Amino acid sequence: MPQTPSSRQWKTLDKDLGRIGQLEQATLYVSRPMVGLGVALAFMVIVGLIAAIFTGSGSTSTIIVAAAVLGAYMAINIGANDVANNMGPAVGANALTLGGAIVIAALCESAGALLAGGDVVSTISKGIIDPAGMSDTRIFIWAMMAALTSSALWVNLATWIGAPVSTTHSVVGGVMGAGIAAAGFAAVNWTSMGAIAASWVISPVLGGLIAAGFLAFIKARIIYQEDKIAAARRWVPVLVGIMAGAFAAYLAVKGLKKVITIDLGTALLIGVMAGALVYAIAAPVIRRQSEGMENRNKSLKTLFALPLVISAALLSFAHGANDVANAVGPLAAIVHSVEFGEFAGKVAIPSWVMIVGAFGISFGLVLFGPKLIRMVGSQITKLNPMRAYCVALSAAITVIVASWLGLPVSSTHIAVGAVFGVGFFREWHNDRRRPRTANANANDGKIATEERRRRKLVRRSHFLTIVAAWVITVPAAALLSALIFVLLNAVFA
């Protein structure tokens, strides 16, 4: 049937509308990253206005406003980079959706920062720089401004390339670099710096070993048992009790400084009591939940899913309480110096400064966190609820062990090291269990190189990128901070 002019007209119109629709979709896809950037800039502007309201007018107000904007920028970067370590394993294990993880993390991070965030912080970042080495208040302010700027820029760069780095180490490097530029190498406490450098190795290795140990236990006592459900009823409540005890002690040591000061022995006692209580509650719950389940690994994943979600939420709460100081510590130091005309190793954090840190971390997580969450959760090695649970449990226990040993550790290094530990343990375990292939060398019984490469369960490219980023974090932040300090001192001298 021949087409009439009217039908050809409508067909042409449909094609044009289709092209317009495709153009709109492409425009939305391209502009999506700009929306996040725009919201982040708007938040920084609002923070600047709030700082101006609280501090009045004048040259001193201008300094505080600039520092507040930089503090908001740092908080956004902490949310974009650091929080992935808490939520990534749960998302990678499919225990949480990405949206659910972002909502839970944002709420728990903010609650941790506002309810349990330390009201007094060491603004010179764990005694790296002696304040007495600064010649005057103005030099100190520029040094803190340079440290804040350099650490934020470095974490931003690390997030862009997809490397989870320690924000604590970034701040330490920034303070060290500015301190050296302001007062020379003698101003640095090199003993403290040596301990921090040692933590680059201790944190991930300890986290990886503990995570691998728990995974080995789960495989031996639950997964490879003939009756998996009966084994799960026996051991999952024990593991949940250990988790509860570890997190209770973790929060007592690291997350409740604002409410009450608790020594390590008391914290461990609290952990034992909490673990016993939760075990008593979890045992009948796990028994009821496991009724009617099939005797296979998929059922085990269901039993571990809820404890994994709870552990991720607790990690976020503790992170918000402990690491908000990385964003607002230098800012609080600047505010104190401007208001009182002096500088000190420790200062109280004003309420509005703490709010900036809490909301900045949440904004950064919502706007820019998904990239690192996906990377930590699924792109390093494949995780399921059991493996991810080992990662979360390792993070809490490693911090307790490090506190007992007096070692400065990074929560980022611990969590990512635990992910690597789980992956490398799986490689080793699979090589032991898998039968020899036809390609194996008959003389020495070793698996052929090609076959061994095919069996890799940890992406080596991510491993090398992340380790390299860890190694250069402190020197890179220090160098950048020194350059920024020299520039600020030259411009505003």
Automatic annotation (TrEMBL):
Name of the protein this chain belongs to: Phosphate transporter
InterPro entries per record: Phos_transporter
Domain of life from the UniProt record: Bacteria
Gene Ontology CC: membrane
One function term, GO molecular function aspect: phosphate transmembrane transporter activity
Subcellular location: Membrane
Pfam families assigned to the protein according to its UniProt record, in alphabetical order: PHO4
Family annotation (PANTHER family): PHOSPHATE TRANSPORTER
Main localisation: membrane
GO biological process, any: phosphate ion transmembrane transport
Membership in a protein family: Belongs to the inorganic phosphate transporter (PiT) (TC 2.A.20) family.
Transmembrane segments: 34-54, 60-79, 91-116, 139-159, 171-191, 197-223, 235-253, 259-282, 303-321, 349-368, 388-405, 411-428, 463-492
Membrane topology reported for the UniProt record: Multi-pass membrane protein
Keyword annotations of the record: Membrane, Phosphate transport, Transmembrane, Transmembrane helix, Transport
